[in-house]
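Regression test attached.
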Amino acid sequence: MTTLSPHDSKSPVIQAAHRAKDAAAVLAPLPRAKKDEALLAIADALEARTAEIVEANAKDVAKAREAGTSDALIDRLTLTPERVRAIASDVRDVVALPDPVGEVVRGSTLPNGLDLRQVRVPLGVVGIIYEARPNVTVDAAALCLKSGNAVLLRGSASAYESNTALVRVLRDAVDGAGLPADAVQLVPGESRESVRELMRARGLVDVLIPRGGASLIQTVVNESTVPVIETGTGNCHVYIDAQADIDTAVDVLINSKAQRPSVCNAAETLLVHQDIAAEFLPRALDALADAGVTVHADARVMAYAKESRATVVEATEEDWETEYLSYDIAAAVVDSLDKAVEHIRRWSSGHTEAIVTTSQQAARRFTQLVDSTTVAVNASTRFTDGGQFGFGAEIGISTQKLHARGPMGLPELTSTKYILTGDGHIRG
Amino acid sequence: MTTLSPHDSKSPVIQAAHRAKDAAAVLAPLPRAKKDEALLAIADALEARTAEIVEANAKDVAKAREAGTSDALIDRLTLTPERVRAIASDVRDVVALPDPVGEVVRGSTLPNGLDLRQVRVPLGVVGIIYEARPNVTVDAAALCLKSGNAVLLRGSASAYESNTALVRVLRDAVDGAGLPADAVQLVPGESRESVRELMRARGLVDVLIPRGGASLIQTVVNESTVPVIETGTGNCHVYIDAQADIDTAVDVLINSKAQRPSVCNAAETLLVHQDIAAEFLPRALDALADAGVTVHADARVMAYAKESRATVVEATEEDWETEYLSYDIAAAVVDSLDKAVEHIRRWSSGHTEAIVTTSQQAARRFTQLVDSTTVAVNASTRFTDGGQFGFGAEIGISTQKLHARGPMGLPELTSTKYILTGDGHIRG
């Protein structure tokens, strides 16, 4: 009379999703020790089969070179024996993290004597759509496995050989540890249609996490019926308040912008209170120049630029919403803290905003009014990161408000269920 | 240079959403006392203006009668002075609930001395799409206001006059309490196009919660780019284990099915372990008959039906996935607990499943393997409810895994943000 989920769809993507769902049902009740065993097997296998992985990767790299891919992208794509060892070491770090599954989030005995517990359970099937870096393949699989989820991986075509080799190694290790190999799968097919099928597999896939550029994320958000966690877009602001220590302000600004400009938690806009502009901007503009940053300045910032070493261009409205991911920063003078908040509310992607201030009142007001995943007081925007936050690992940084917001660690890869225990309790 | 969100869209729905977003920014930092004041003003206003509300409602009721609407639906639509008083009293109950906003969910001092706090914040703008009952208008507005959210209400055309009057009363009260009236708005327009615009207002509306029948919910899930919380579909199961107290089993079954069959937490399928079928089913079938329940039986249940008083029809595969919401139940005999779990995994909507057993091992296995919002052991499925769980109020029961699962109270209407405080910390 009853059978498990039908595997009779002709689509390889839907078939893979069905297999993932079945695997997820096996993973869900597993104790931590079993999952850690599989993760250790994965780390060992990555090291033992490094040659096979590097060889496959060389094909992707050769193809990328032929296609005239930039050196930066080729560097992100390349796997060396050292890099494979580092990936294996990251998997061992995941072994050391606590298992979120089974945690009792809350519990109480109800007035009628029923015992109510809310416990963490895996999400089920997690789909990850990502771009060139093959290390994401292993990182994502390890985090999903540790949290009891099956994973469907959809990497970029440019890393196809690398991902295929990595997933082969992962599946063999998982299988060898006695867990279902289908806990880790590459989404079959390289066409856009296969991505579309994945995005429409509601009921089979529990969540999709796109990791990559803004256009990838927009496509997934617009076309998916599977719930999506939006990640990564970071138009981050640094606001220098009327009362601020100038040295601190310059340090936080330069670190936020220039320590690693290519990442989502790098600052993209500087806002300066008018009362401190004359004191702060000359120093800041020189420091930005020394860091190699081009300033996209509004008229009030421009007034200070001429006497500085800064490379300056006139800001247009487009600059306020641009995530440069480069040595560029938009800059404006604002009349008040509230005007800075207004600017942020209008233009920010809601990732991270920092205030530099010596005023307790200003810090309190800024943190109350600014609605972003992270509000930093006298600290660099660059700290918004799962590793920095002590989560031990990160599957991405959510910039949406539902389910998870900010850096997502293992608990963010779980849902909960309620367990209600009685002695034949019925409702009156 | 900077202005608040542009209100220059020509669509009245998008304009309303912009106003809601601005109102949400005002609500977010408000302390509990201010929000409670507005809620008390709402309760008082509902009582003071009962005549106006009942009069508007009478127009909807008259129109519904003309249209030949069923008595049951007309009853759900009708507002009497007593019902308006009850609605006002529910609002006062919300005043008594704790404010989730500002709660520190977790916090620590990082190794570098940065203080990290994760605090609850409102979601922002919540859209509710619902069907005939006008009390939802006030309930939803009160819960959203208490949790610091602006609400966009889209009720059914059949309750248009009632909802318009209620929202007028609510907005006047909110305004009188010094809060932005646009915290509570009806979505303008009665066309389907206006719902479609609401579903596409990503970036303005933070979450949509459809409350109503399966087809409404499916439409929203399929068409919305705004994140959706799926609610309410309940194909709930009661499983009677091989070892079970027969009295308890009959009581839990009858209460789960017949105490209030029209709601989502009522049971729709009975599964019986083959080893207890001969003892349990004759008693259960008679008890179901006495409760007026028709049994849609598989062949093995049918074998017992002939000697009972039960009204029985043959079950087809369709019965296993049907949410009857009536005095009907599907019933099957299963070979084992694991077969019951398989059946549930295949057919359940993931709302609530109950096991009746005296075996600790069986209870443990069932709660581990069944992945639904609520798993009840020796308790009726009817307990899955925010009020019963002690949440004090409920905006709906989420049957999805992301963000919230099971009954949603005030905390489920919030997100979080991280506040990071340092002394000029920069990343090395």
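Expected vs. actual: identical. The mean pLDDT of chain A is 94.
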